[in-house]
Design brief:
By secondary structure, the chain is mainly α. 77% of the residues lie in helices and 6% in strands. It contains five helices and two strands. The chain has a two-stranded antiparallel ribbon with strand order 1-2. α1 (2-71) runs antiparallel to α2, α2 (76-106) runs antiparallel to α5 (155-172) and α3 (119-129) packs across α5. The longest helix has 70 residues, at 2-71. The protein is elongated.
């Protein structure tokens, strides 16, 4: 009978040891989760700060490039270089907008405004929005969509997707005659 009690004591001791190990691992996981949340918060703060810090000079660069392209008598090479500055700036601006959206999502600050609207009209208006940058590059934007039913979505976010897609396509298209 003593050997049975000894086995039970040994088994009980092993269980206690396993419970203690489980508690230690649980505490370590809780600490790791706290650290991950802290790092995520700092990363979000960094993203928000950097996008703001980069947007201000980028806005100036894009503004000056547009002024040069619109109002200065530039040689063809200078005009091409300014066009490249503007195109690269627009790509950077789109990337910064994505980072802002990402930091808002992570911070739980992004909201959807759902309502019914025409995809065709949203696409038509997005095309009109990019007409000027497209014309500056000598690129023509044409689209043909069949009659589509209306959808329920966030129209502003969908328009942003259309705009980003079109601007990317414009920036990647070969320059045409001006």
């Amino acid at each position: 009978m003593l050997s049975g009690s000894s086995d039970m004591l040994e088994q009980h001791s092993r269980i206690e040891h396993l419970v203690d190990e489980l508690k230690q691992h649980s505490q370590a996981l809780e600490e790791a989760n706290r650290e991950l949340r802290r790092v995520a918060l700092y990363r979000s703060m960094f993203l928000a700060r950097m996008t703001h810090e980069l947007r201000t000079p980028l806005t100036s660069i894009l503004g000056f490039a547009e002024i040069l392209l619109d109002h200065e008598n530039l040689s063809e090479a200078q005009w091409r270089f300014c066009g490249k500055i503007q195109s690269s700036g627009l790509q950077l601006q789109a990337s910064l907008n994505h980072l802002v959206d990402l930091s808002r999502l992570e911070a739980g600050q992004s909201e959807l405004f759902l309502h019914e609207f025409s995809v065709r009209e949203a696409m038509k208006e997005s095309s009109a929005t990019v007409a000027r940058p497209a014309a500056k590059r000598g690129v023509t934007v044409n689209f043909e969509l069949p009659d589509l039913p209306t959808v329920v979505s966030d129209e502003g976010k969908l328009r942003q997707v259309f705009y980003n897609f079109l601007m990317h396509a414009i920036s990647r298209s070969p320059e045409g005659p001006k």
